[in-house]
Amino acid sequence: MAEHGAVSSVLLRMNAAWPLSAAARELACAGVPVFPCAPWGKRPATEHGFHDATTDLDQIEAWWRQSPGANIGVPTGAASGAVVVDVDVHGPVDGRTGFDRATRAGLVDGWELLVGTPTGGMHAYYPATPGTEQRSWQAARAGIDFRGDGGYIIVPPSARSIEGTTVGYQVEEVNAGPASVLDAGRLRYFLDPRPTPRHAPGSLDRGVDVDVSRLAAWVAARGEGERNRGLFWAACRLAENGLPASDALDVLTTAAGHAGLAEREITATVRSAYRTVRRTPARRGARDGSSPVRGASPLAATAWFDRNNSTRPSTESSRVRGL
Prior knowledge:
- It is built from twelve helices and 13 strands.
- The protein is of the alpha+beta class.
- The strands form four sheets. It has a six-stranded antiparallel β-sheet with strand order 8-9-3-7-6-13, sandwiched between helices. The protein has a three-stranded antiparallel β-sheet with strand order 1-2-10. The protein has a two-stranded antiparallel ribbon with strand order 4-5.
- 42% of the residues are buried.
């Protein structure tokens, strides 16, 4: 049988009859930090969510004494030594199809455990890559999420209430072969490939080019207060470089969603950026300062967006002054 990491090793020793408090303590004793989530749910029950995860047995005892039915959350990535491919089944989206495709392509071999989820999906556990950060991401159209650094997972013997019925997380299959680390970046590209810019004639007269994957990563890292403006600037850069608006939406929707923007907000901002670039000649902006988006710095372009953009998503504007 494959050698398992701390999380998988503990999960193999327990079953649905274990009290949640005992399971939480067992994980902590193995060096795996835990935190409580809402009973029958997935929402963290602490102020800072997975950032509050600990192996302190006194704190864990206090949490579960206060809420014995609290589900168990475990931060993924370097904190616990485990990463998880989360296969969702929601309505018309069945992540098992994408996982099967990735299996045939040899991209998801080496899992330690397969855990069935209450909604009919699956969690595939892998060892984290030592010394390498692998950030969490979503491939929504494929129905698959990756839970790595910056994410968390609900572990057995936790349970959910689904349409009035209690359904637990349960280990369904154990790998008898060798476990191996997962190339999460390669898997993401396979499930959700990114288009490359199709440069329009004359669009690169300033010698400006765009690395689409780096631009998307930059958008994904924007914090509250700069998300819309960063998205607007990035969309302007893609428009300048001749990428069709539909492809820009494909590139930026997942990235901006990771930053916390809703799909409607993302669509409105990207379309606004494309309208702005189409109607504004580059030399006009350089001459009178009316629109500095072409080739401009993020600061200049987003300042212009603050002053002139009329398609400001309402939910963000309620939280961030000027947007």
